[in-house]
Specification:
Chain lengths: 307, 323, 164
Amino acid sequence: MTGMKNIAGKEFRSSFRNMEFLLIVGVFLIMSIVSVYIGSTTKNAELKAYEDIVATATAAGTEIPAAPVIYPLAILKNLVEYIVMIGSVLAIFLGFDAFNGERRGGTLRLMLTKPVRRSSIILGKLSGAGLVVGLLLAATLIFNIVLFDFYTGVFPNNAEILRVVLFLLVAFVYMMDFYAGALYVSTKTRESSYGFLLMMVVWIFISFVIPQVAESQKSYAYAINNIAGTVTQVPEETVLSNAIGWLSPAVQFKSVGNDLLQAVDETATIGIGRLLAADLIKILYLIFPSVLLTILSAREVKKEAIL
Amino acid sequence: MYAIVRKEIRDAFKNRLYLLIAAMLMVLVIISVILGALQVKANVDAYNQSIEFLKSIGKTDLPEAPNLNPLAALKSYVNYIGILGALIAIVQGNLAIAKDKRTGTTPLILTRHIYRDQYLSAKLIGNMALLLLLSVSIFVVTLLSMLLISRAPITWDDIARMGVFSILSFLYMSLFLILSLFMAVLSRNTKRVLLLTVVIWLVISFILPQIGDTMDLDNQLPGGFFSSMGMNKEESQKILDQFSMYETIRDGIEEMSPTKHYERASFALLNVKSGFESNTALEISAIKWFDIAGILAPGILLWLGAFMVFLKREDINEVQGGY
Amino acid sequence: MIGRKHMAWFLAAILGIILFGAFSFSTADSSLTVTSTEKTLKVVNGQTTTLHIGVTNDGSTELKDISVQIDLPYKWIIQSMDPGTVSLLPGESSEFTVVLLVPASENASTHTLNVSCTSGELTSDIINIPVAVVTNPMFGYAILGCIVLMIAGTAIYFRRNVRR
């Protein structure tokens, strides 16, 4: 246990000395701030447009359209995209050299001469990385709540804060999936860059390719856009698109994230308990890869050839 | 120089990561093109069946064939090149410099009668040849799929559009190749430079377009914001007048992304974006000159920058950070 | 001399002609013709372009509140229209000056403007005006300038450092 704690502490400290990691943390934090700003600007633009519409309709004596339904947390919904795009890459940056770096630097042999169980090395690294990711997401949480208050003038209520906290927990699980994957690849390969690029390819498939294939299998209902004078297509899920979506944790994460951040009308106002019950299978699906990859990494580390 | 070009090509075919990513790209493109071609074939068959039925009941006034747009089958290809193609190019560019640094052959090569700019040029030409081979292979596969599977009527102009589109894809991947080469020459730490290049790629290929999409009011609600308000055109146009600065800023952010330029030019060539059906491939290239320049110009500037950096570099013997 | 029976037919025929003439007069009356001085347009994105739409009352009754209707691409705006509406006597013509604003976010593309005039329930034929949206050529010069500067800078850099 002491060994695991020491390894976790070392992992935590060394990540803040890694320039590339700090760079992408900076990008992530900036983007999370920007996403709140853009979300609130867009919503303000919609509200202003609506006010102009009401003024025009009032002056013309025509019927005033219903106000657009804008849920407060929806201004944070871009965070879902940024976690998928940058958060997962950040986790890969953290993990691709976690094991191989120790092996290359000779510290792995040194660690194994100490009374430390081999599986503790993996668990220690996971714990250390988990602390880093958790700290980052906690900082994101605080930033977003403060900015939310700043841009909307309203402090979120308890239910809204709970939704944001739950979202960040799910984001934590999602990012740790990628860390666990990068760590496993790091135990298997001798070249860090190979492991990194392999994880990038995995990331591309999970985050873009599979969702696009799923999207292409949706059926489309037609809605008339009376502004552009065109018929627009509104996508609807099919059995096949759903099935393909289950191959990608990114699709499930986006689904849960959009539900929690009130980006979907149907789930924007339902209670947290009901929401979690509805999304339970998806959340368990997101946890599963981390558990599996941790077990695989622990088994890999126990082999003699690991040195 | 020729020896270096040949070596680059040989080394790529021995690199398992490059082969893995290239194979994945080919498989994805083949699958997406075949799926698209099958969709077009289904549309062609449906039209032919309708014509046969009408003829069988004695109709002589037959409807014209709808615009089947077989080129739209390539739409997914744009996304795959935008992501995987760029990654292949980044891998190639990084490896081109990093492997010589790691093995210590850079100073050895420069003791030969070859100038530094020739050395870099040879690296670029060799790797661009690989990207060209990839683009041509995909073009041939796509054309065969369209002809043999979809059996849609494909004109010479369609083939010309596909050809120009393949050239554009090649230029887009070359941009990331040059970016990766430039970064590899700029930094002594080979591991760090790969990560930095990936971060830059993320920002220009994903984050900037994402910001532009998010700022588009009409993307926020299904069917469009104004139509959801029940606005007619005249009313919405009065409202839109007040958002012209917002639109300018949004467009400015999108213009900073070469990926967005590639997408715009490609969608025009493939008729995914309407309004270009009656233009030839060359006319579209002329109309979309700015998007093509948005891909070419950064590459040229980075390439010249790479010359200047490498010329000055005295520490080419040193490798930091491992690989 | 026309007999009484023939007189009745004669009067009925004249009445029919008068009624027919009145009827056909009232249906052949309303006719609005629209033309455009510009047959094609070329506009730089983010800038305005002016359209001169001519309208003629070819009918035989006065037409009031004639306005121009333009089917614009999405996000395009009619910045001004002068005059807003006109009234024309039979045979009269007028011209509308319409200023269109193309949004800066409109990429280089081709569109077709469908232009017609309306007066109440009467609508003229539609004329189609192709519009080409082009990117500001100044950007092209700026890009070329940057490249030329960079080439010059590289050449000077190489000469100064002597060694290649």
